[in-house]
Records
---
Amino acid sequence: FHIVQMVAEEHELTHAKADRIVKGIFDSVAESVVNKERVSISGFGTFTSYTSKPRKYYDIPTGEIMTTPARQRIKFSPSKAWKDSLNET
């Protein structure tokens, strides 16, 4: 399936218009998450960003214990309605 095609067919739009709409939505979500804003889409879920903790790991070739720096991560939590609908089958 292709979301642009689905939007175009459902709303009787040209492929180009549907593509601009879908890209606009995803660009807005991405920009908001980068700006550390919480983005909720009703019936779908919530996108948030968070800072991961630095982690230690063992570098096998050198034998050293190394540390990865803290990084920005993205988290998606599906809505309760969506999770419930997945478990109904």
---
Amino acid sequence: LNVTQLAINTAITYMHRFYVVHSMKSFHRNEVSSSCVFLASKVEEQPRKLEHVVRVLYAVIQKEGPNALDIKSDTYQTMARDLVDNEQILLQTLGFDVAIDHPHTYVVRCTQMVRASKELAQTSYFMANNRCPCVSCCGCDLFRAFFSCFA
């Protein structure tokens, strides 16, 4: 989907906040993760078309190309409707509080302020990036697949 690391981190944070409230048995991680990606791309001002997100989701799940899904098919219509419905549930779960204060901006500012070496700045950014609570059972592998497809 070709979005920034900030949007990826936002989507991961949304997913973790969602599963604090809801059971993983009630909501499948593939459906929730696609809704998180869709919402995060909008919040981080990198909106992606619903059609594109659904096609990538289909490609990841079915292990086929994104063009294998016809937008007039029942499968596409169902997936699109489910994604939008899950986005609404996600928003309600988050209490419509979609602003995420990521540490990355502070890391960049601090390393510039103290005139840190490039190596220290990269290490600091790496540590801030990996602080995202990332548990493989929550579908972060699906996030990686989403963002690696069609980059």
---
Amino acid sequence: SSGINAEYGLLNEDKLGLYALQGTNKLSKFKVHETLQKLSFLPPHFVMATSQKKPLIYLWNLSQDSSVQKYVLPGSPLCVAASPCGSYIAVGIDNSIRFWHLPSGQLVSTVSSHYQKVTCLVWSHDGRLVVSGGYDNNVNVWEFHKLFKEQSTVSPLYTFTNHSMPVTDIYCGFGGFKSRLFTSSLDNTCNIYELCSGKILLSLEFPAPIFKLLVSRCESVLYAVTVSTEVYKVSLISPPEKDLSKQMKVFIKCPNKITSCCLTDEDSAIIIGSSQGDLIKYSASTGQVLPFSFKSRSPVDDILSVTLPSYKRNDKPVPFPYPQPLKRVSTGVLDECSLLLKPKHEPIQFVSDSDFLDLVKEAVAEDKGSDNVTELKDKVGELSALSEQLVKFATDQLIGS
């Protein structure tokens, strides 16, 4: 659409920094003398990157070519994810997850439920859930508002233990508690869960270990990216009923080992970065190579596709909205911004359709003998009698005429 710039972030191991691309045009280069590893988008127009060797997170303003902010952490970050509102970040450090409130820099919570290092983090699109995966093969689902309570009382809403090897990627669909959760692992499988019930809906087995999941916005197609050079495509409208790992056909065959990939916002193309520094664009429907190319001098570590409103570049410098450093210790007192997130009542617990029907049947069959129930039953009886009289009157009128 008019006035929208689709940009792609590119990381390299040769300390060249972060590139912002539009099509085949290189818009800008965000220089940083550090080896970076993971990219994450921070609304409305910021990009975060974790340092590979130092306890640092870098924050770039995409509207400014040289604007950068550094956050010092208590340990080396393994993964980072920002909340949809852009006010909170979740950072995986060793086997713990730390949550910061960016406007104040306050440490909101620290949870440690994984037995080994955390590999991936993702927020639900409504910001109520945080999902983490680790080297311990487990996937934990957290209710974010409960992280404001005492640390000893916080426990995951769900813990999925279906994978037999480390979790490599997580995708959370739209719908909050009613959404579907996608996970991949080095055990060659991809699992799909229903968050409202915590049940596993589907488990797909592939011929090779999976390190990245790409899911279309309407969740009709899943792309499984292997640790080597293949990409497999699975239709979720009519998924396979049994293990078809031996019969699956390769959708995309990259000439070099795949090190990063992303799906464009309009779901029309897949952009793949390789170990040789190639950046190749494939059609998401046919798998054919599209006219797009970019060559780097070293492996592409990560790619991020974002859509931003058009803006004037190289304008006057805009100060960062979050200048406060991140605190290492929680003060135990939350500011007003944090308190706004805490609901006055427990959130509504969503259930599956079958469980909902059972609850309705139990509620209808249950008679507590209250006055309201008695009055309603009397009124129902009166209405039933009146309905019979109306039917009789109408019948008599029709027969008489």
---
Amino acid sequence: MEEESINMHQKVFFNDKEKIAQFLSLSSVDEKVENLYFCDSIQKIFSHELPDKSHKSEVESSKLREEGNIQFQGSNYKAAISKFSAAALVAPFAESGESRSFSLALANRSFALLKLGEHKLAIDDIDLAIEAGYTEENRYKLIERKAKCLANTGRIKEAEKSFNEALKYLEFSKCKDAEKQKIKQNLENQKQNMSITINNTLTSERKQSLKFELQVSNPKLPAFSDAIDLRYDDVRGRYGVATRDIEPGTVVLEEHPVAALLKPQHNRTHCDHCFSKASTLPIPCRSCSIVRYCSGDCRNIAANSYHQHECGVDDYLETFNKDFHEGRDLGLIHHRLCYRIITQNKLGFYKENIDNFTRSNNKSGTKKWERGNICARWLSKHV
């Protein structure tokens, strides 16, 4: 470990013995942070010009969407879905969060899903297309499609509401009055006949998934059940003791990780937020094409917390890893995970909790607390 520290000092300070000695002579954590932050090797990384890796293209998205339309016209719905998904992944977004290309790709994909009887997935795509700014003049078609999907899943009241919404958006259509009247009558007829034509047994046939969760949390450690008492001794460290009889299948511990990271080899197949398989219907980040999500909800959670800071900065971490860890995969993953832990909270959170971060508690953590101390000071000053 000591040899590893020496090697790191040599890399950070370009083997300048005077600068290494100066750093080692510093007694204050704050001074060490300042010294590291302004050293040449770190500043070199910050000055690194990032290449554009967004891979977003209006032209490419339009091309893929047209290829999907050809597959759709030939009733090759699965192939069409694949093309529409590819079009969605490369569709550029405006700063407002809207995207014409994305909305059209998802709208077309929802139609192919409807043809395959995938009503729930089609509804999700329709909602995302509308969120991305699907054109108002044709929105009635999309909302009518959503109403059909809702009806086919037994959600009659929601379907009726969507048919009414489609009638409202029909007013924005540019079709002629006579054609508009026909469409209006068709929507009214569908709404009236809906309860007759839809098999309502779908609702009763839905299976409720089993949900396991803590019944009552431990007052001291909320991740544990109140049926567990946490204790500590020098031999065993921390351990739990049951305070009462516990029935088989009872959840005694439920805790989400502070942060979790998807390995790069799974970026194209799994959701970057919840890690579930993204299947053939991925939802992209609005700014980059590197990560993908299983739903709009996962994308929005990531975008509103850590991914807004991660998006496009991987090159900084790759450069740091190359310079100081010989490009090892484990080193890069370690730094990316640390970065995600940091970016989940705003700077104010770290400033308010600086004392908690720098306080050592051997009963709940490692004695080697100084690195955490340095990180906390760094965050409070430079994040």
